[in-house]
Prior knowledge:
single chain; alpha/beta; Rossmann fold; Dihydrodipicolinate Reductase, domain 2; Alpha-Beta Plaits; 3 domains; ten-stranded mixed sheet; six-stranded parallel sheet; 14 helices; elongated; binds NADP nicotinamide-adenine-dinucleotide phosphate
Amino acid sequence: MIKVAIMGCGTIGSGVYEVIENNQAVLQKELGEEIRVAKILDLRSFPGTPYEKLVVNDISLIVDDPEISIVVETMGGTKPAYQFVKSCLLAGKHVTTSNKALVAAHGTELLQIAREKNVNFFFEAAVGGGIPVIRNIGTGYAGQVIEEITGILNGTTNFILTKMDREGASFEDVLAEAQRLGYAEKDPSADVEGWDTCRKIAILSSLAMDGEVDFEEIETEGITKIDTADFAYARKMGTSIRLVGSMLREEDGFSVFVGPMMVGMDDPLYSVSGVFNGIVIRGNQLGVTMMYGSGAGKLPTASAVIADIVEIAKNPARNVPFGWHAGKLSPKPAGARLHRFLVRFDGADAAAAQKTAEALGAKAPVFPDGGAEFAVLTEALTKDELKEKLAAFPNVKKYIRAALNGIA
Ligand SMILES: NC(=O)c1ccc[n+]([C@@H]2O[C@H](COP(=O)([O-])OP(=O)(O)OC[C@H]3O[C@@H](n4cnc5c(N)ncnc54)[C@H](OP(=O)(O)O)[C@@H]3O)[C@@H](O)[C@H]2O)c1
């Protein structure tokens, strides 16, 4: 029998227990033997649950148990998750985690320890929930030079932006609704400020570039400044606004950013709505593909953990090539990457607006249905070039990135 321990029995940890129980028959068929959760580490004791008797409160009861070969980390955060995971790997146990904060902060070291100990440190569930994006980058896209990854990686913010788009509602109102529905945390900063997306695109960039991309070096902007007028312009232009994390391989390096971006109707990300995630990957020979699905939630995320467990169980005595190698890779400043931009200006004078549009490479400005302002969708520019050009316009209100292609 394969014995698994779960550290942290909250939403995802209890989901892992459930999937192992619910899908026992299919797991046994796939693995040729029984697989069971043998211990659960948590701060609580879960009286009355089917796993009450499995609960332990001391990590050493897992680390020192020679019968436990696979450990699932679903506690979240880095303290004490980092120490606990490291102890398990050093004790020769395989680990799978859903914890993007842990992987983004300590992934390089933990991958290295796993290699040295001939065990596996997997983290399929850390990005894209139930979407197998991490394994796909390693195996499905093997032999490709990955040129670009652009993804909607956070369901909470996508839910908020989709509602703002469809209902014309304000950020504050939709956030409050998302909190009522349980899609957003009481403290929503990690989602709405883009930090969650930042850690996820850091992990995907590390995989694509095969080196450590530090999330702290990624230019990150959230969605708190997106307002109803931005969406009114976007709709007029047949576009929408999404929060993306994006990595682009360039001739002399790569750049990464997280921020809101206008996308046209033909962009694959346009149709990713509500709490779903979508990740577009471009390979040098492959062209463009997109993965789409449930990017979070108990059972989708637990299913990704289970996929890791199955791969580990099929490779009990071998470190399967996975992750990235040591060595820090610094992204180029995102300000040097080409985009178009939606720029909003104060003023209602048609002639001045036309001049402004032409100065930014647009045929004409776009006027809202009311109000003394207008917007211009620029030609392709770097952010640094845009800033230089905008220095001549004291009436700039704000600007938002727009996709390079697909907007008329
Ligand atoms: N929820 C999702 O949809 C989702 C999706 C993808 C990835 N993830 C990631 O998965 C991880 C877990 O998320 P979650 O939503 O399952 O969180 P959660 O519901 O808060 O579960 C965490 C569990 O770990 C326990 N715990 C915390 N510190 C502990 C410690 N020192 N020792 C033992 N147990 C401890 C918590 O106990 P207490 O409740 O008593 O504190 C709780 O039961 C996070 O890294 C998250 O980012 C979540």
